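Reopening this ticket.

The earlier resolution said the output was attached, but the attachment link was broken on my side. Pasting everything inline this time so it's all in one place.
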Amino acid sequence: MKERPILFSGAMVRAILEGRKTQTRRVINSNAFHFPTQGSVFPGARWEFEVRENGLAYTHIDNPNWWHFDSAKKFCDAGDRLWVRETHFRYGKWVKSGLSPTGRQNWRFKATTDEVLYFDNSPDNVRPNEYRKEGWYKRPSIFLPRWASRILLEASEVRVELVQEITRDDARAEGVSNRWSWSPDRNPELFARGLLNPYIANFSVLWDSLYRERGYGWVVNPWVWVVEFEQCG
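Inline output:
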């Protein structure tokens, strides 16, 4: 069993704490899996995947002897622990940290206490970063230390699929709502996709907010790690 950090947005942290989110999808980090559809590596190819200790084996469905291997780094294994990094608040101040290559002053945040607060218990007086002096500051999730993480997850299943293969039940397990927050007139692109199930449609919006600018939007249909998890404790 290994332990590794995992980042979630504030909305997804809420969904985890409320028991509504039990799955997450992450783009596979490998050049071999940057193709958008099942048939784009070899015309007409359809693939099945097996998650192995040192990477992924993918086999042609119609020809079991035609298989490939890729050492794409696994996101995690079943049984691994995932400690959640989330946006938080720390008490401290900004201190000078040398000069940039262009001669500008660099600053770094220095916490002056070990107290950590979260969105559901946020401090009243949060300072903007430009304030520099001692006070409460909102800190990005990437800076949350392990000892301050309050959510520990255990991966129960890890598999590979195309992001558009998500089912209604899996989209619901991703923590999105089933409320229609837009109409065809406000967002015709989603209706043009044929995403008439609100869970899947809302998940596609969430996905695009995270990955579209990085080149892995919903319409690209990238291969993803699917991680099912349970809260520990």
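Reporter confirms the inline version is readable. The helical segments are 10-17, 168-173, 188-192, 198-211. The longest strand covers residues 105-117.
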